[in-house]
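WARN no homologs supplied; continuing
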Amino acid sequence: MIKGMEIKEYIAPKTISETYSLLSESKSNKVIAGGAWIKISFKHVDKLISLDNLALDYIKEDNESFVIGAMTTLRAIETHGGLKQLASGILSQAIGSVMGINIRNIATIGGSIMGKFAFSDLLGVLLVLDAKLVFFKAGDVSIYDFVEMTKVPEDILLEIKLKKDNLKGYFKKISKTHLDFAILNIAITKRDNFKIAVGSRPNIAKLAIDTANYLNSQKTIDEETIENAVEIAGNEIKLGDNLRGSKEYREVLMKTYLKRGIREVVK
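OK structure emitted
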């Protein structure tokens, strides 16, 4: 029993097919992957199904991509030499902003994705990296399609694929303290084209598609172009209020750091 939670049974199956069968038995059966965010994910569970025995803790690398197992800890990803070079290191930077090292040693990338947390510093970065999620039943699903889903699929996330594109990247998290959740976060990548995501709005991270399309249509990126892009983002990305910040404050933050980020990736 975890304080504030009711768990009737804990099971650690040894195969993915068995895990999926257990998950499919009842909507009251849930998967645990790391467990850092378990208390804010659900309160009543019939069968809590562990992924610990499924050998999903790995980072594989070849000439074209990285493949990260869903049970890989955030800390392992943060400190991986190859991933620290991807898109100016924005994935490592974003993960390094998540709470403290003790939490990052527990939290897994799969659990962090499947939670679809509005405060996530990770989802926006995965959006601009055009990540692919690999599920047991659904197969490959783009991170964009996953984020846009109204309901988290009753499936087992196996791994995450990231292309080794030669991208320049920018990530910024704004929070009251290093250990607090973000008031706002921004992720940008550019090679031939821009991709821009804004998270903790305070809603889930969202791609600024119209803003990126405008920038991608311009022959040169000068200060006037950047100002125009920021105005488009202000209309495209819906911001709101919560205990960490007001809509008006987020508007100022978004405009300020979008400008800085765009300038950074076009250097």
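The radius of gyration is 19 Å.
OK
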